[in-house]
């Protein structure tokens, strides 16, 4: 799952603080031209905050699930408002590849099996992709032994 810097409660607190901080300074100027101008700019600021907050929460609907057994490895990728995409491979032939200095991202992580590739963890931090690589390699090693 994507990183979340704030919990739902934390987001609500930021929302309340921002709304209060945008409304309170306008109160003395209500009914004046300055008040109208301040209201327009505060409203625009608040709208942009809500817009980008909504975009952030939509990205939270993205996930990848990796299932590894002795017979197959399966990656299920779900984007917001899209159907699930599935990639399957044989654990014996599947290789975990990490490019430290990729053009796309730092620690670019892919699975490869017989010429087919899939990117993993694009929404993770570089350190989390390293941890994911290690976890997948360990699980693949166990699957090959069983």
What keyword list fits this structure?
three-stranded antiparallel beta sheet; alpha+beta; rod-shaped; 146 residues; 6 strands
Explain what the structure shows.
The protein has 146 residues and is an alpha+beta fold. The protein folds into 2 domains: 8-59; 63-145, Pleckstrin-homology domain (PH domain)/Phosphotyrosine-binding domain (PTB) (PH-domain like, Roll). Helix content is 43%, strand content 26%. It is built from 3 helices and 6 strands, in the order ααββββββα. It has a 3-stranded antiparallel sheet. A 3-stranded antiparallel sheet has the order 4-5-6, with helices on one face. A hairpin with a 4-residue loop joins β4 and β5. It is rod-shaped. The two termini are 29 Å apart. The mean pLDDT is 86.
Strand-helix topology:
Blueprint: H1 8-23, H2 33-59, E1 63-68, E2 73-78, E3 84-89, E4 95-101, E5 106-113, E6 116-120, H3 126-145
Antiparallel strand pairs: 1-2, 2-3, 4-5, 5-6
Helix pairs in contact: 1-2
Nearest-integer average pLDDT: 86
CATH superfamily of the largest domain: Pleckstrin-homology domain (PH domain)/Phosphotyrosine-binding domain (PTB)
**Uncertain stretches of 5 or more adjacent residues:** none
Order of helices and strands: HHEEEEEEH
Number of domains: 2
Q: Return the structural class.
A: alpha+beta
DSSP helix fraction: 40-55%
Provide a brief overview of the structure.
With 146 residues, this protein is α+β, with helices and mostly antiparallel strands. The chain folds into 2 domains: 8-59; 63-145, PH-domain like.
């Amino acid at each position: 799952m994507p990183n979340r810097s704030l919990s739902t409660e934390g987001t609500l607190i930021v929302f309340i603080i921002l709304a209060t901080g945008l409304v309170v300074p306008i109160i003395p100027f209500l009914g004046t031209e300055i008040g109208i101008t301040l209201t327009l700019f505060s409203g625009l600021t608040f709208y942009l905050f809500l817009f980008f907050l909504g975009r952030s929460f939509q990205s939270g609907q993205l996930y990848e699930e990796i299932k590894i057994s002795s017979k197959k490895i399966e990656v299920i990728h779900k984007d917001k408002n899209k159907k699930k995409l599935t990639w399957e491979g044989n654990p014996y032939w599947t290789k975990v590849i990490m490019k430290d200095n990729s053009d796309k991202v730092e620690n670019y992580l892919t699975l490869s099996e017989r010429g087919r590739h899939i990117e993993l963890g694009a929404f993770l931090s570089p350190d989390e992709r390293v941890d994911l690589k290690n976890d997948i390699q360990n699980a693949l090693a166990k699957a090959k032994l069983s």
